[in-house]
Amino acid sequence: MSEKVILNEHVEWDDNIEDSTTPDYGFTWNTPSRSAIAKPSGGRPYSREVTNEGHTFTLSWINRSFLCVQRIRWFYNQFKRGYFTIIDHDGGGRHCVGRFTGNLQIAEAGNDKYVIQNLTFEEIPGVPMLVYPSDWDRDSIIVGPVDDDGMLIPAISGVWSVTPMPAGFPVVLTNAGTDTSNFATTEYCGYGFRLYMRKGPNQGKAQIAIDGASYGDPIDLYNATDIGLVCVLEVLALSLDFHRVKVSATAQKNAASSATTVTYGYLRVMQ
Amino acid sequence: MILYPIQGTRTGVAPVCLLDIQTVDGNIYYVADRSISNIPAAITVDNEPALVEYLPWLMSAPTFRFYRSTQTDTGSILLQNLSGNSVSRDFERLARRSALEGAMFVFRWWNAGGEFAWREVHGTLTVAGVPKTSAQLNASQLIAGSDDTPAEIYGENCQLVWGEKRCGATGDTECLYSYHTCQVPEHFMGVLNTYEKNFEETIAPVITQTVNRRRGL
Question: Residue B35 and residue A154: Cβ atoms within 8 Å?
Answer without folding.
Answer: no
